[in-house]
Design a protein that fits this description.
This protein has 3 domains: 171 residues, Triger factor/SurA peptide-binding fold, CATH 1.10.4030; 120 residues, Chitinase A, domain 3, CATH 3.10.50.40; 108 residues, Chitinase A, domain 3 (Roll), CATH 3.10.50.40. It has 16 helices and 12 strands.
Length: 484
Amino acid sequence: MIFCQKYTRCTLLSIFLLNALFCIGLASAQDQGRSDAAGNRIRNIDGVAAVVNTGYVTRKEIDDRITVLKKQGVKLPEDGTVRKTILDRLIIEKIQLQNAEQEGITVSNKELDKIIGDIAAKNKLSFAEFKAKVIASGTTFERYKQLLLDDVMITRYREREVEGRLKISDAEIDNFIAERTRAISGAGAPRSAPAAKGEPEEIDVAQIFIPVDASAGAGAQAEAKKKAAALLRDARGDVDFLQLGAMAAKENPKIKFQELGYRTPDRLPQLFYEAIRNTGGGQVANTVVKSPAGYHVLKVLDRRAAGASAPPQQAAAPDAGSPTPQNIPITQTLSRHILLRSRAGLSDQDAERRLQGYRDQVRAKTADFAELAKKYSEDGSASNGGELGWMSPGDLVPEFEQAMNRLQIGEVSNPVKSEFGWHLIQVLDRREGQLTVEKQRQFARAAIRERKFDQAYQEWMRELRDNATVKILNVDDAASSAPR
């Protein structure tokens, strides 16, 4: 069930490794080896795009990354920024690998062989078959292992460093549960006693963020601004802001919904504070905020005196009269699915057509869903006929959950696309259950961690870049061109 929402961050490495097979073209295209000999560096200096601490990034590496992206069907910008963008990514990767090596992060040959074995098994290949497939792609197996080793080391270093920055308090968990409960019940948000005039205050702000790069063209800027304006209009209406943000994020995964939590004005981005300076609790900012990163729709959830406790209801259960948290009644769904993973060589049209064929067979009773799942599904649930077990709201990625919730018991969906590929879903049963207080806290902690991880990761990467010695030599020319 790697497409389960609550396991997204935990399975980041395994998902990445699963895709490694389909990016082997990158391995064959990259420079053959990373020699540390000074003579070799001097000999290749004309091909160096940037010097990174004691290492370097070559122009050929940039070329190769562009080639791989094109093969994967990625639409690249035509404004001449693509080489610089890719160079920036390669520089960060180089710094992370250098730091991982300095910190003594290692991966044994036994561990690496096991990882490769897992990748092969998930692609329904033996180790020998997988090795042959790698070699047939045009690279050596040793080169593939080296690239995979680098990726694993970087991932382990990244996870270790960023995890250490994450601090989640019980108050944050209580606030998250209260907000989610109000969204489910439709109840209004409680308000704190405002700070007296002249006294310091704390403001709880939520935002819907529509990212757009500052260097993006006028069309992309206009589209993002238009979307932000539409969300602002909706937010001013009779719509729960949390639900509005969640729905926007479901429709476009690039859009982010985030509650910043209680902060004093000096801990808010200056742009945000200026926009909500005179905005009361429970009110939406009058205008969309434009920043270098994109467009922000802001709502002040609450304002209170600095250091004050949260409103009593914020740590309370759905039953407003109870002083302690309570279980939340929920509907759980038992379903199964057939998954065709997104990969090179399988277009969306082909995946959708194949799943539609399976659906027609099940509806015509010429095939059994479980047997089709065992034979064709590319998920770990295949051996169990695609069955996923009892799932609660929020357990699955939005696209899957929305399609599943529309089905009657026994009904089979049309093909559904998610970030993991294409699914065919059948609902087996439903039951009324309870989301226990402990489960609520687990879910809240995971959701807050996911939100904070992204922010901490971006800050960490900026620090890495700032602390590294980087000299850009030549990014604009392809490797086959003479340096200018």
